[in-house]
Amino acid sequence: MARILRGEIRWADLNPARGREQAGLRPVLIISHDVFNERSGTVISMAITSQVQRAGFPLTLELKSGKLPKRSWVKISQIRTLSVERIGKRIDRASPEELVQVIEGLNEIMGI
Hints:
Layout: E1 8-13, E2 25-30, H1 34-40, E3 42-49, E4 60-63, E5 72-83, E6 87-93, H2 96-110
Antiparallel strand pairs: 1-2, 1-6, 2-3, 3-5, 4-5
C-alpha cells in the first residue's frame, strides 16, 4: 500500500460502528503524522459527511475539495484510530489551512 500521509482524504471502511459513530465506506481526513502512520499500522482520522451540518465550527468544517463526490464536511468530533487495513484509495488532500483549522477545532473541543 502507498504511504498514507497527513492531510490526505481517503476512502475508509468504518464498519462496524456503534451508536452515533459514522459508519460505512466513506471519506476520512488523516490527521496523524506520517511517521506515526508508517510505523504504527494505524492512522488517526476524522469522518467526512455529505449531510448538511447544523453544527458549525469547531464541531464541523466544510471542505473545499473539488474531488469529493459531494459537498462535504469534516466531523471534527468523529475522530477514530483505524487500522491501515481499513484505509483505501486516496481521493484528495485537504489544504494546509483546512488542516490547521481542523486541529484548532479539535483543540477547542478538548479544551486545550
